[in-house]
Every structure is written in structure tokens, then in C-alpha cells.
């Protein structure tokens, strides 16, 4: 396995947002969840099958959602979007968390990559996938709720390290998405949430590309999926109703 080392808020309940329905479905506890133990780790990349990649929850250009609006401060925009993605990816993972255990996922893997966690003292730790995700969500939660890093009060400045911290957060969140695709895609399909996952992944990738928040080498393990999802879908035939 390859070793990889680490160094305005959105109304989620609004069904008009691309992820609004996702929020609603997450609150339907237990509905449609597959029974039994977690299925074997993906050997074939089923998430690349065209029958799955064409499934989305929106049919408009997601790039329009990430472009910096006029007269909006860049750091404010990065903070708002980063916090939103943290919440959405945390929710997406929660749908398969019962299948992501120390037994089924003894390491945090995606494709041929194993991710290691580095604590605040720089100590390298190999941990199970659920432990890694817990470390990610806990550390990101701590950052996005810190007023000195993600200020919410008018006039308060962002720290000089803000850009690097946002990049670090995005890197962690990408690892979680990659693991869901690699190890838990079948469960996601069984719950009919792959359209939401595809939309969330595409939205996130378009965002990090727009603001150069990740080195392309770090996202290369998912390049095949990125190409499949970021390629515009062919226009769908429209139904025309004729009045009589």
C-alpha cells in the first residue's frame, strides 16, 4: 500500500439548495439501510459505472455555486463554503458509519493509499478508518468553531494562517470522501444515496479547483471519478405538454 503523510452559512433544510434533500433523507433514521455486515471492500470501481455516475440530484452547473461573488471577501467565502462542506461530508459519512468499523476497515484507505494521522505533536499514527474519520471531524469542528480562526463577528480579521488551515481541512475532507467511495459505495447505492454523494463530491472538487486548495497530486487517486463526474451530462429530453 502507498503511504500518504499528512501534515453566509447555508440553510441545509432548504430543498432549493443542491444538498437540501440530502439533509432531509439523513433524518429518516434506518430507512432503506442494508442489513447484515459490511460488504467486501470494492475491488472493482463500481462507482465508475455509467449507470451510477449519471445519477445526480441537480442538473445545473455547480461551478456557478463556487465562483466568488462580487463584493464578497475571499476569506469569508472560503470560510462559509468550508464549513458547509464539513457539515455535509460529516452527514454523508454518518449514513454508512455503522458499516465502517475497526473490523471492516482496519486502516484508512482509498484505492492504493493508506492515510496516517499526525497528532498536534507530529506523531504518526496508523489507525482504523472510523478512528481517522473521528480525528478529522473532531479537529475540523474545533477549527471552524474557533472565533480566532473562523471569525463570525463583523470587523474581526482572519489569521495569516487561514489559507493553509483551509487547505488542510479540505485535504482531510477529501480523504473521507475517497474512503466512502472506495469502501462503502455499495452501501451508499443500497440506500439510494449515491446521487447525493456524486453531487457532493462534484461540488467539493469544483470548489477546491476554483481556489487551488489541493495539490492535484493529492487528488489524483480519484481522477477517474472526477473526470466521469465533472464531464457535463448530455441534455435530457424534455416532455412537452400540448394544451387541448
From TrEMBL:
Zn(2+) binds at residues 100, 105, 179, 184. The keyword Metal-binding applies. InterPro entries: MOB_kinase_act_fam, MOB_kinase_act_sf. Keywords: Metal-binding, Zinc. The keyword Metal-binding applies. This is MOB kinase activator 2b. It comes from Cyprinus carpio carpio.
